[in-house]
Amino acid sequence: MIVVTGATGGLGGATVEHLLRRIPADRIGVSVRDTAKARHLADRGVRVRQGTYEDPAALRDSFAGAEQVLLVSGNDPAADIVGLHRNAVEAAAEAGVRRVLYTSQQGAVPGNPYRPSDIHIVTEAILEDSGLAWTALRNGAYGPLDQVLGPWQRTGVIAQPADGPVPYTDRADTAEATAAVLAGDRSFDGPVDLTAPTAVTFDDVAKIASGLTGRTIERVVLDDEQWVADQVAIGVPEQGARFMLTWYQAAHEGYFAETGPLLAELLGREPRTVGDRLAAHLAS
Fold this sequence. Notes:
seven-stranded parallel β-sheet
């Protein structure tokens, strides 16, 4: 039995879909906040149980009988994420789970200015101290490209703070590789990087986008405070803008620059590139 948390979310849901292509449905369980939203999985034979990181007793029930559990990291900025992750790890241990896989982040090392890094560092330490076998999947940035590039297609400009090389990774590839780890024969202990094989800068992306669109896409580097002010002017809360700014700062300082071959090995093919993703976006 493999149990996936967050199975009605983007990464968790996509991972379950890939698991269903690899193993029988009766070997898959999900732990979700709202079981009604997982009805489509129950109808296909997946074991659906209610469980949240806030409710350790429910988690223990939802993890019962599982050999492996995928803990999808929390992302509520108002919550005590570390405490919630600790609840989940302890529930897994009490339920007799053999291995926990945790969705960590590339560059989860001391000194990284991107604020979630601290959460991932502490959670990995909790896993290390748990007595469980564990794997931290340090995923490359897999959010929508427009989230970090801005409205380049409309403006013809990538006007963002100073950046650095990042192996932007397709979420669908990340989910497929996660399922491959869960259902495969290879064991991975501790942290492993799951990233696209090539790290690119916004200068690189501007050149790629120019080639795809047939028009010149410029790269303009904005002062950090000017960028924050611009974000606030379009309605982004200042706290949210400054949170995102730490991501650009981490990229600029090289915390996301390293790449690795594991994602491609798990997929058995080359992962989608930034060019592939931009082309698909333009086609849609």
